Amino acid sequence: MPKVKSRLGVTLIIIMASLPVFLWKPHAIFGTFSNDLRSIGQILGLVGTTLFAINFILSARLKIMEPFFGGLNRIYILHHIIGGLAFVLLLFHPLTISVSYMTFSITSAAQILIPSTGNLPVLYGAISMALIIILLVVTFYVPLMYDIWKLTHKFLGLALFFATLHIFFIPSTVSENLILRTYMLGLSGLALAAFCYRTLFNKFLVRRVLYTVNGVKVLPGDITEIIMAPVSKKLNYSPGQFVFLDFASLGISKETHPFSITSQPNSELISVAAKSLGDFTETLKLLKTDTQVRVEGPFGMFTYTRYGNPNQVWIAGGIGITPFLSMARSLNSANANQIDLYYSVNTPQEAIYLDELAAKVQAVPNFRVFPFYSKTQGRLSAEIISKATSNVTAKDIFLCGPPPMMKSLREQFKKLGLKNYKIHSEEFAIN
Question: How far apart are CA 161 and CA 142, in angstroms?
Fold first, then answer.
């Protein structure tokens, strides 16, 4: 059931992107080179705008959407793919239409490529396209601090606003077909609402739980563990899920960042841990007791309790151990799951949670832990795991660690015969 449900989101997006083409088709005019190009340009514009609007809805971080995509991390991956596709379609939309007009008049084509205040609908579209191009260039080619990068993305809402104006005022099939017009403007309206919810008014509209920092521990391996206590209401979560935290402290970025929860769900306190990999994670050591923390979540489908298969393999790479800590801490002697945890680090000194996990092994008969030290043992592979864990192809695999490691192991397990839907991964990263 989880596999089927997680595909519904992608299926719905395909339907939503295809619907405007079906509504447009009765008005299509083909037969000449010019008409064919113009029709292709219209299709590119309709599908590109639809995907652009859908991307704003995906980025709203709505928990209700997670089951239909397989988790928030999958939504964000899809968000990047759809964003790139929408950009390409929207870029070729005016280019294709302008070329179609060249068969009649160079002047007409120039009016599309070089808009003016005398043709506001075209100008609105040009402004939208220019904003998208500038923001994508900044995203991919200009190194910016996270806070500034997030600020630049707020202008994408302005690009969507001008795109909506372009759709509303431009004389086209959209203006002639009431159903198509309602669909396109309605979807754009939902996208603008999602943008306002997540970006403009998120401090007022997004629901968060207030915690305070109870303690900060700097652990070996440059890892900072943060323990937090609820101010009033306790957060309910499943083992392996993550939250977005916003620290109200001087010297700490005001932007929210994702953290896997390391504590067990029945604990009054919640804890997270992060390795110092960049400016933000390095400053976490500066946190003081009683600092207020706004907690949004929980998010994620990366939890062993969600899947019916009790035979599982957990694979952690470095700080990727964090979601597995929450899962392991939630296990007890009555646990019916057969679980093997592979804890891969460079050296034994980096396996800072190994003693706790070893104690859990003694308390839970069906739980085994295999430490793996890549500096002396090489890279952990599916072949190595299959030799230590019998009948590995009948198990569900959980991966969390560096992206190259997860990608490589996923492909290796698939070559052994595992279905892709039986391999689950958590792919968030902070710096």
Answer: 25
